[in-house]
Amino acid sequence: MANYGCTIEWSREGAAFTDLQYKRAHQWRFDGGAVVPGSSSPHSVRLPFSDPAAVDPEEALVASVASCHMLWFLSLAAEQGFVVDSYTDSAEAHMGPVGFGRQAITDIVLRPQVSFSGPHLPDQAAYDALHHVAHERCYIANSLRSAVRVEGSWRAA
After folding, report:
1. Digit-coded pLDDT (tens) for 39-52
2. Sorted alphabetically, which Gene3D superfamilies does this protein's record hold (predicted)?
3. Domains of the chain as residue ranges with CATH
């Protein structure tokens, strides 16, 4: 079994807090050294308290699903002898009500545009099957119903 993680870092930096006038910008740090700027979505928290140039959690979720799907698609295509030259996906997630006053990502739409070359090209049925199996194998898409536990701690500053 593999474990995956990242470190999320945010600091108040002296700003007032209980008036809700604090910056939501933060950083995601990954074990390979990548640092990604994160923030709340400007759809959720108005400017200047969110950072529209940063990745928000909703964007990260749709990017994770699209990336996982693409990686499986590429692997399956290669196994079947299809040569993929490019793969571009303009994926989109939709937020909506799920009852009891709560909101959630209610659906994610992947819109891959794939270019193949070589003597062995898929027909429409083979192309559709690649996407079907990629979706079935995508860890992220299969995880969206997973439990989330909070196992934190706190201290006085």
Report:
1. 999 999 999 999 99
2. 3.30.300.20
3. 1-54 (no CATH), 56-146 (3.30.300.20)
